[in-house]
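Possible regression after last week's pipeline update?

I re-ran a chain I had predicted before the update to compare outputs. Posting the input and the new output here so someone can diff against the archived version. Not blocking, just want to make sure nothing changed silently.
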Amino acid sequence: MELKTITKYFLIQIPGWIVAAILLFWGWRLTWVPAQWALGIFAVWVAKDFIIYPLVRIGYEMNTKTVIEHLIGQRGIAKEILNPKGYVEVRGELWQAEIGTGKEAIPSGRSIIVTTVRGSRLIVSPEDIRPELQSSPPNS
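New output (post-update):
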């Protein structure tokens, strides 16, 4: 049984809420924190977790694409000749790449398109040739 993303997130937050409640209760019992302040601080502590959930949600999702898989279909530039391997720039980052099977060498400066990934390497084709985009398993 797989838990929903939001359920996982809030289950992980519960220990922090318990610790905060205990510390604030302890502070109130020792009279250095007024009860209203303790409740307010606790409310802000819990509200913070609700507010940041949309920002951290993807970190709790299962079966999401890896960073490199998000590059499939992106365009870039060959930074050196790809014959069959070399470096390309995609989204301002350098990546190791190789040309797809049966393709000719790609000269430096030529526009490329990412067709698939193999591990941490991009498989690319010249931009004017757009084969069917597909994702290979990252560990192949």
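Follow-up from reviewer: compared with the archived run. The chain has two helices and five strands. Marking as no regression found.
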